[in-house]
């Protein structure tokens, strides 16, 4: 905002199309879901139009659900952390590449996104399974005696999710790196800052908006991811999305599923908006 | 032993040679100015010394050590960028403190030094401000303070004072000179302000199209330019056609209706004479007569444009209260024979 | 020039390797002569690529997906750009609420959205229509477009736009000629992400796609109902090849560098 | 063609068979156009629930388990009377009279023949064999919200002195003996195939139809009915109430029960015919429950009891077994 | 009728008043310079006229019309930004062409005008280059060409020549002057180069801390500064303490061992006199004696620092070949009574 700027309609007009679209095609379905979460369900009776908070009470009281939500956010946090730790440097390296290589590498980063989650995780299964290429390789090299369990473990889920989501981080950081003035990095170097210091003190603070954007996307996607945890994690490693999926499709207990979804959404919003605000305050300067 | 040696330094951008086999030796504690028209390769040269651009050919040694082998952050020099290159996410004070932090200066010392440096550039009360909220000149001064505070052995200054007013510029010049004297800092200064270069430098290096034209003390370069480019670039010059003749009293040159004895040895025939505007004065007789076309006030001096039979001439006179001609007035201008350079006509073309 | 050091290049290689590994595996599997997934393959055969041709519904679904992806990501961009500019440039009451709103589709499991959209569309008569499909996709891919454009436009130098205005450019012209080109890398990557996500979406689309508008992922999903075979890998491999080809064409016609990096930058 | 009916049913090879053989014949015979809405049982059931009161679908095809639920939830209309219903085996009829099983597969055990030969293992012959420690992390069972998994649970209960009405022994058996062997509780057939193909799994509780499809790809899969008996898994069809084309929908269901369609489904999709008059050539009988003798041997589970307890079981399952 | 009127213009940034009730009237075709120390509000003023900053108070009218009611792009003025603000994604030629496109100039005309403008700033062969690949001065010239090519009625120039060498700067000055004369463009120029301001401007506006100090012609402001700030800011001044005495011959001031008649009316007692360095000359007698501490070459002139009994003084003498004292030489300096200003001691403090 320009200092001394008067209150204006401009931002509202600018975001109007988006707000209108979301209001009709997002808020209405979400409101329907929220209402649904108040209903009750029985196997033979189906969904009953009662308005009670029973489902919420059930979930909040049940340690089974606690465990699942905890796991969900643990995985999401880990994935976000790794994506930031890998994706941001990668974006930086990309920027420092010369012309033809840069576009090429950028495309490779985008590559994984282009094939469906199903076949990507298929690839992972082939790689990570107990008889997969990785384990075979490690066994052949004599590095391990018994296959490492990746499939159906949290580690496997995290690895696969990183693979699926890290391009979002790279792209997002990439977009914000475009604004950096290379001379500013030079200035830091001339003052005696080594490459890591330049990264940490000069580049990083300036690309925080990009990392934040990337982290938000990654965290939200990881927390609500369905396909990857379902395929790599299996049923025993349930996360919130698979739980909702089960309730919706297998038991047809939509009210409970809707409750899970609403709780997931609320928790996500609280975490994300909270972090967003924290980061924006901490790095106020670059957000102006 | 020479301190900094640039040896056949060359930088080519795609299809463009920005710096062309530039060789230069700088002594420790010297202040050297790089002068030259816009785009002649001054910034490029500094960037190579600082290590931000890799030369295509040539070597740089500092204190006998190969500088090109070192990474930019290990070269230990200070640089003020033409575009300032301030850290946008740090306050003025944080900007200045950065180099000290890199040198592990303790907190207390650092704060003190930062405060001193900001005070030096007249920004004592601006420490908390972010660059975005500062005026152009204020930003430039932060950049200067940032480079000065680390007290580097070699300081590269790329038009460090271009956005400061005369008063401030003068103060900064004095400060630079003081630091250079007291700390013994070697400085390479790029400036477009000739009086600044003249006033500050031990030697000036005149560049054109990436090539060195002359390396000399300011006065030498000014009074005895190595070639027409330097003569023209440093200060203004009046070039008048004349006829060199061998007379009884010796060689002389006839310009329109006036005549001057020639002190150099020039073959008779069509010739030209060059004389700087500030060496010309308004005389009562034995001069070239003309009419003042324009008089322009320039503060400490006046600039006159005088139309004479030999062509239009520029004359500079000090604004010292003496009587000076008005526009449209008929005047006579003259100069001392030793202040002019005479050459055969074809050389001057 | 700041080049990457050896460590950076090693990191880059490992990173790209990590990204490519499962894809290469999938591509390798696509060439198997066997009727089932196996690695290493016993030979090289194009039988599964030929099999794609025997399934015309894949080709049709591919076209539908492409159309859906292009339409919805383009719409999403059109909506996201002004919103991103508003959020990046202005501090207005409700800014955070708007941000949260635009982001929320990311945070709801798609199965929930799928059911909700199905119920909603059925009630307003959009059920099974392409319009409904596009709109629902726009909603779920909007966050990608928005966040990337936002990352590109926060902290952009305003004086450049001022310069345009001073030269007589109206707000719209200045946006089109100056702002947009400057945030183009963000917009382009936002579009690509949006497209990819729309192109890939299955969990939600299963519910709102109709027999006439079935997307490729849904087709694949249904295809592997009772059997997974290398056809899936072949389809993926083919997609990758086509993408590479499209990129090459794009590079020739417009210049990838220009699109992803921006003009006049190094 | 002015009339169109929407049929919601499985994807995959079933869809191929329907589109290539069963539907064209129906369209030709009646002049009614059929739109095929592909999706698995759970998806389609969910679609029915979502569009409740505003149904776009005329005929739905589901596994028998979900079909019981669909009937319970009122998504099925009464079946019209027709001669073809008299030609069916008993297991085809569903108690409510609102849906009919048009095909049957058996739940049994699938294993990787090559793996067993290489490791000199004896092929499984009993439900108990899946408890063999040799299969540690090599066994796959669908979860109990999937019919195959449910069958396995019921069988384990029966073998340990319980049954549908006393499910505890089944849970106990799973928890103590089977769980260590289980690599994954995997409902998705595609995923299951992949686990076999990548050699991560070598034994599974699965259906005869799936096993046949896997073997047809050239993979060395073998299927056995355990000696205690396989369990029948029906595929059922019903008409959605309120359909504008109820008559055509009923006709379509009858068409599927007729000899011609039954043969196609058996040969191309591996569904055991429920029509007694269907005759299959010997080479096409492999892997399909066929004929009164085989069909008679298959065990039937008590859906009424199961459905009454399903919610509780599910809850227990996710908390005790799948944790 | 005045062309541009700034009326009580005020701009406050959070906790900082950058421009404070600034009122100014500019005539059509006038060239006005804004002068003032770094951070005094020059850029802020221009930005308000251009419409990029909203004033907190005050009005601006152009040609009788309220300018604040118009959007920036409707104000039809040209501006050269201190930071250039070139479009990084356009080549030099595209940058220059932009404004013409906005005015729907036909393709052919546009190409010609762009070529002319680039030629004018000496960048004929750089049309295809992107700003990032240009030197600082080249970028600045593109910015200048971009603003000039649209021939605006009002041109705002924010230190437009700060990164150009003297030669180029002079050419550009002449060019600006020519455009102003021939097209009648009204110009507001911000510059830190006083001789530039003096040479170019019809009037100068001296600002300090957001407030106007003086509006006058250059010579007037220089020779008759409105206050001590202006006197000090424009050029240098020597301030010497003395004693004002009433003698038989009239009022005079005694400075160390010398004495000058006072032409103003000043009460007797402790006083001070101010005299500009260029008004001082080396005299043979009746002056203040001192020793030359430093002599600095500045191209057309020399700057001397002379230590006298009354304090350190600066003296400027033209580099016209005349004999000038050396460092450490004992000299006597003097000036004409009409070139000094005498005031009571407390006023000078
Ligand atoms: N966005 C801002 N927020 C707060 N203060 C600001 C902002 N922009 C400028 N200032 C302050 O306002 C004052 C005037 O700034 P302005 O840019 O007008 O100075 P200037 O006269 O152009 O100086 P210079 O010659 O150095 O360019 C400065 O002290 C500056 O620090
Ligand atoms: N990245 C680049 N690619 C191509 N040419 C370049 C690049 N950078 C600079 N140049 C060219 O090299 C020449 C030297 O540039 P340099 O910046 O050294 O000039 P300079 O002497 O500093 O000029 P100024 O006084 O205008 O700043 C210029 O003509 C410029 O156009
Ligand atoms: Mg430069
Ligand atoms: Mg300014």
TrEMBL record, chain A:
Classification via CDD domains: TM_PBP2 (cd06261)
UniProt key word Membrane: yes
Topology with respect to the bilayer: Multi-pass membrane protein
Biological processes, Gene Ontology terms: transmembrane transport
Transmembrane regions: 12-36, 68-87, 99-118, 157-175, 211-232, 252-275
Keywords linked to the UniProt accession: Cell membrane, Membrane, Transmembrane, Transmembrane helix, Transport
Main location per the UniProt record: membrane
Domain ABC transmembrane type-1, chain residue ranges per copy: 69-275
Subcellular localization: Cell membrane
InterPro entries on file: MetI-like (IPR000515), MetI-like_sf (IPR035906)
UniProt xrefs under Gene3D superfamilies: MetI-like
A Pfam family reported for this protein in Swiss-Prot or TrEMBL: BPD_transp_1
GO cellular component labels: plasma membrane
The family this protein is said to belong to: Belongs to the binding-protein-dependent transport system permease family. CysTW subfamily.
Name this polypeptide is given: ABC transporter permease
Annotated source species: Azospirillum cavernae
Taxonomic path: Bacteria, Pseudomonadati, Pseudomonadota, Alphaproteobacteria, Rhodospirillales
UniProtKB/TrEMBL annotation, chains B, E:
One of the GO biological process terms: quaternary ammonium group transport
SUPFAM superfamilies, A to Z: MOP-like, P-loop containing nucleoside triphosphate hydrolases
Domain ABC transporter: 4-234
GO molecular function: ATP binding; ATP hydrolysis activity; transmembrane transporter activity
Annotated source species: Azospirillum cavernae
Family matches, as InterPro entries: AAA+_ATPase (IPR003593), ABC_SmlMolc_Importer (IPR050093), ABC_transporter-like_ATP-bd (IPR003439), ABC_transporter-like_CS (IPR017871), Mo/tungstate-bd_C_term_dom (IPR008995), P-loop_NTPase (IPR027417), Transp-assoc_OB_typ2 (IPR013611)
Highest taxon of source: Bacteria
Lineage start: Bacteria, Pseudomonadati, Pseudomonadota, Alphaproteobacteria, Rhodospirillales
Protein name: ABC transporter ATP-binding protein
CC terms in the record's Gene Ontology section: ATP-binding cassette (ABC) transporter complex
SMART domains: AAA
Alphabetized UniProt keyword annotations: ATP-binding, Nucleotide-binding, Transport
Gene3D superfamilies: 2.40.50.100, P-loop containing nucleotide triphosphate hydrolases
TrEMBL record, chain C:
Transmembrane segments: 7-31, 66-88, 100-121, 127-150, 178-196, 231-250
Main localisation: membrane
InterPro entries: MetI-like, MetI-like_sf
Topological type in the membrane: Multi-pass membrane protein
Keyword annotations: Cell inner membrane, Cell membrane, Membrane, Transmembrane, Transmembrane helix, Transport
Gene Ontology terms: cellular component: plasma membrane
One biological process term in Gene Ontology: transmembrane transport
Nucleotide-binding in keyword set: no
Domain of life (superkingdom): Bacteria
Domain (ABC transmembrane type-1) ranges: 62-250
One Pfam family of this chain: BPD_transp_1
PROSITE patterns: ABC_TM1
Subcellular location: Cell inner membrane; Cell membrane
Family of the protein in this entry: Belongs to the binding-protein-dependent transport system permease family.
Protein name per Swiss-Prot or TrEMBL: ABC transporter permease
Taxonomic source organism: Azospirillum cavernae
């Amino acid at each position: 905002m320009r200092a001394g700027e008067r209150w204006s309609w401009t931002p509202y007009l600018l975001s109007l199309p988006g707000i209108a679209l979301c209001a009709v095609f997002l808020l209405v379905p979400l409101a329907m879901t929220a209402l649904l979460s108040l209903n009750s369900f029985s196997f033979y009776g189906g969904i009953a139009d009662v308005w009670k908070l029973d489902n919420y009470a059930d979930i909040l009281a049940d340690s089974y659900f606690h465990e699942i939500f905890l796991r969900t956010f643990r995985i999401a946090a880990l994935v976000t952390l790794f994506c930031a730790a890998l994706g941001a440097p990668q974006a930086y390296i990309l920027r420092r590449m010369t012309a033809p290589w840069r576009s090429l590498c950028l495309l490779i980063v985008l590559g994984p996104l282009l094939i469906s989650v199903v076949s990507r995780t298929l690839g992972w299964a082939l790689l990570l399974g107990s008889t997969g290429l990785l384990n075979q390789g490690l066994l052949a090299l004599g590095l391990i005696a018994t296959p490492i369990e990746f499939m159906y473990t949290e580690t496997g889920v995290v690895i696969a999710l990183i693979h699926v989501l890290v391009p979002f981080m790279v792209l997002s950081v990439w977009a914000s790196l475009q604004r950096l003035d290379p001379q500013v990095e030079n200035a830091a170097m001339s003052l005696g800052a080594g490459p890591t210091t330049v990264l940490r003190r000069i580049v990083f603070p300036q690309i925080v908006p990009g990392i934040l954007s990337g982290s938000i996307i990654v965290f939200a996607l990881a927390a609500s991811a369905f396909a990857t945890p379902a395929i790599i994690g299996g049923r025993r490693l349930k996360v919130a999305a698979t739980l909702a999926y089960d309730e919706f499709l297998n038991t047809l207990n939509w009210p409970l599923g809707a409750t899970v979804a609403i709780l997931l959404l609320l928790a996500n919003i609280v975490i994300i908006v909270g972090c967003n605000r924290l980061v924006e305050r901490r790095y106020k300067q670059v957000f102006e | 032993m020479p301190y900094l040696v640039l040896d056949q330094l060359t930088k080519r951008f795609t299809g463009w040679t920005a710096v062309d086999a530039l060789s230069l030796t700088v002594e420790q504690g010297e202040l050297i100015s790089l002068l030259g028209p816009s785009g002649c390769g001054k910034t490029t040269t500094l960037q190579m010394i600082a290590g931000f651009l890799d030369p295509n050919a040539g070597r740089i040694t500092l204190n006998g050590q190969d500088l090109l082998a070192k990474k930019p952050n290990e070269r230990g020099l200070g640089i003020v960028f033409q575009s300032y290159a301030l850290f946008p996410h740090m306050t003025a004070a944080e900007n200045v403190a950065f180099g000290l932090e890199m040198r592990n200066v303790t907190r207390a010392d650092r704060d003190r030094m930062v405060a001193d440096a900001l005070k030096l550039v007249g920004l004592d009360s601006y420490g908390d401000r972010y660059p975005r909220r500062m005026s152009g000149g204020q930003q430039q001064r932060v950049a200067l303070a940032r480079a000065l505070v680390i007290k580097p052995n070699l300081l590269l200054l790329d038009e460090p004072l271009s956005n400061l007013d005369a008063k401030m510029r003068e103060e900064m010049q004095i400060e630079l000179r003081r630091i250079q004297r007291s700390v013994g800092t070697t400085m390479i200064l790029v400036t477009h302000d000739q009086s600044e270069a003249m006033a500050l430098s031990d030697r000036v290096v005149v560049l054109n199209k990436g090539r060195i034209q002359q390396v000399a003390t300011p006065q030498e370069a000014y009074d005895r330019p190595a070639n027409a480019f330097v003569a023209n670039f440093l200060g203004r010059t009046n070039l008048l056609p004349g006829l060199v003749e061998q007379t009884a009293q010796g060689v002389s040159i006839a310009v329109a209706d006036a005549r001057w004895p020639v002190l150099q040895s020039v073959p008779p025939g069509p010739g030209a004479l060059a004389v700087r505007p500030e060496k010309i004065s308004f005389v009562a007789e034995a001069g070239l007569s003309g009419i003042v076309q324009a008089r322009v006030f320039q503060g400490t001096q006046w600039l006159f444009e005088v139309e004479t039979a030999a062509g239009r001439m520029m004359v500079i006179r000090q604004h010292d209260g003496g009587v000076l001609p008005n526009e449209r007035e008929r005047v006579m201008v003259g100069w001392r024979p030793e202040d002019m350079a005479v050459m055969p006509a074809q050389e001057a073309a | 020039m700041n080049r990457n050091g050896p460590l950076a290049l090693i990191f880059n290689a490992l990173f790209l390797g990590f990204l490519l590994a499962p894809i290469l595996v999938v591509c390798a599997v696509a060439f198997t002569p066997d009727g089932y997934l196996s690695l290493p393959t016993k030979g090289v055969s194009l039988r599964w690529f030929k099999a794609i041709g025997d399934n015309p519904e894949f080709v049709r679904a591919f076209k539908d997906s492409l159309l859906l992806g292009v339409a919805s990501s383009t719409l999403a961009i059109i909506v996201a750009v002004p919103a991103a500019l508003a959020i990046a440039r202005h501090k207005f009451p409700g800014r955070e609420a708007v941000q949260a709103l635009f982001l929320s589709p990311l945070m709801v499991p798609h199965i929930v959205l799928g059911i909700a959209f199905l119920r909603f569309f059925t009630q307003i008569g959009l059920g099974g229509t392409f319009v409904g499909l596009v709109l629902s996709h726009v909603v779920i891919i909007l966050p990608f477009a928005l966040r990337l454009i936002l990352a590109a436009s926060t902290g952009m130098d305003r004086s450049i736009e001022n310069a345009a205005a001073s030269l007589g450019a109206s707000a719209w012209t200045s946006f089109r000629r100056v702002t947009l080109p400057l945030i183009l890398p963000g917009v382009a990557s936002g579009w690509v992400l949006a497209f990819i996500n729309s192109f890939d979406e299955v969990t939600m689309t299963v519910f709102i796609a109709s027999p006439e508008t079935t997307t490729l992922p849904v087709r694949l999903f249904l295809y592997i109902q009772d059997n997974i075979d290398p056809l899936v890998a072949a389809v993926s491999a083919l997609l990758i090849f086509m993408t590479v080809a499209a990129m090459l064409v794009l590079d020739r016609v417009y210049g990838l560098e220009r699109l992803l990096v921006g003009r006049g930058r190094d | 063609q002015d009339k169109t009916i929407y049929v919601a049913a499985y994807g995959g090879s079933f869809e191929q068979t329907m589109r290539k053989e069963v539907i064209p014949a129906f369209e030709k015979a009646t002049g009614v156009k059929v739109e095929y809405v592909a999706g698995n049982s759970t998806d389609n059931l969910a679609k029915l629930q979502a569009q409740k009161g505003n149904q776009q679908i005329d005929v739905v095809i589901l596994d028998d388990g979900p079909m019981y639920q669909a009937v319970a939830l009122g998504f099925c209309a009464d079946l019209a009377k027709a001669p073809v219903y008299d030609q069916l085996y008993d297991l085809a009829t569903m108690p409510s009279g609102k849906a009919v099983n048009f095909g049957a597969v058996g739940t049994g055990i699938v294993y990787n023949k090559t793996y067993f030969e290489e490791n000199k293992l004896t092929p499984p012959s009993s439900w108990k064999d899946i408890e063999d420690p040799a299969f540690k992390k090599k066994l796959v069972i669908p979860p109990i919200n999937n019919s195959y998994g449910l069958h396995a649970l019921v069988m384990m209960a029966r073998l340990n002195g319980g049954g549908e009405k006393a499910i505890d022994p089944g849970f106990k058996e799973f928890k103590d003996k089977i769980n260590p062997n289980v690599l994954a509780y995997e409902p998705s057939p595609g995923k299951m195939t992949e686990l076999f193909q990548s050699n991560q799994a070598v034994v599974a509780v699965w259906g005869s139809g799936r096993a046949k499809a896997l073997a047809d790809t050239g993979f060395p899969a073998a299927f056995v009915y355990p000696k205690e008996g396989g369990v029948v898994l029906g595929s059922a069809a019903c008409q959605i109430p309120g359909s504008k084309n109820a008559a055509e929908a009923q006709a379509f269901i009858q068409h599927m029960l007729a000899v011609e369609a039954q043969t196609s489904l058996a040969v191309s999709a591996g569904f055991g015919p429920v029509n007694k008059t269907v005759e299959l050539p010997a080479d096409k009988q492999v892997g399909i429950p066929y004929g009164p003798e085989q069909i008679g041997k298959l065990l039937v589970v008590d859906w009424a009891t199961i459905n009454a307890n399903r919610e509780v079981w599910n809850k227990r399952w996710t908390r005790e077994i799948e944790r």
